[in-house]
Amino acid sequence: PAPPVLNKSFLDAAKGSYNRMSTSDEERVFHGHGHTCQEVYALRFGRLERVPDVVVWPGSHEHVEALVKLANEHDVCVIPF
Question: Counting Cβ atoms within 10 Å, is residue 1 exposed (0-12), middle (13-18) or buried (19+)?
Answer without folding.
Answer: middle
